Amino acid sequence: MVLKVRDNDDITNVTGGVISVSGSKNIGMRVDLGKVITDNAAGDSPKAINNGKIIVGNGEQNIGIVANNSETSGIKAIATNNGTIEFVGAAYKSNRTICTRWCRNCK
User: Fold this and answer.
1) What separation in angstroms does the CA of 60 have from each of 18, 57, 101?
2) Pairwise CA distance, residues 46 & 12, whole Å
3) Over 70: is that where the pLDDT of 81 sits?
4) How sure is the predictor about 105, in pLDDT bands with cuts at 50, 70 and 90?
5) Model confidence pLDDT, tens digit, residues 40-78
6) pLDDT > 50? residue 86
7) What is the 3-state secondary structure (H, E, C) of 17-76?
8) What is the CA radius of gyration of the chain?
9) CA separation for the pair 41, 50 (Å, rounded)
10) Number of C-beta neighbours around residue 76 at 10 A
């Protein structure tokens, strides 16, 4: 899942939801602070929220959840992991969660 806006929108992996990541250099959830403002004229921080499970397996250099970009105004992309991110199978050179300094609850 990918979200790229400059507003208070989010993408959410709901409780009980499962995202599987495999192959090479893939991402389960990604949120970027972009240029498009959808509802709030001033813009705000977009979020990627994992309440379910992200499985990283059978590949290399895959990422569970990531947030990218910020502004000096304090508006930033935010990744929040309330669920689980786990390795399964032949996952190697992988990271459970990689994100910017704005990530909350990285595990």
Assistant:
1) 19, 8, 23
2) 11
3) yes
4) very low
5) 767 789 999 999 999 998 888 889 999 999 888 889 999
6) yes
7) CEEEEEEECCEEEEEEECCCCCCCCCCCCCEEEECCEEEEEEEECCEEEEEECECCCCCE
8) 14
9) 27
10) 19
Q: Is the dihedral of CA 53, 98, 26, 88 positive or negative?
A: negative
Count Cβ atoms below 10 Å from residue 70 Cβ, excluding itself. Answer: 16
Please return the burial class of 72, using the count of CB atoms within 10 Å of its CB with bins 0-12, 13-18 and 19+: exposed
Torsion sign (Cα): 77, 78, 84, 85: positive
Tell me which residue has tokens 């991110």: 85
Apex CA 71: angle with CA 67 and CA 76, to 5°?
Answer: 30
Q: Which residue(s) pair with 65 in the sheet?
A: 29
Beta strand pairing status for 27-33 and 2-5?
A: parallel
d(CA 62, CA 71): 26
pLDDT digits (tens, 9 = 90+) for 3-49: 898 888 899 999 999 999 999 999 999 999 988 888 776 778 999 99
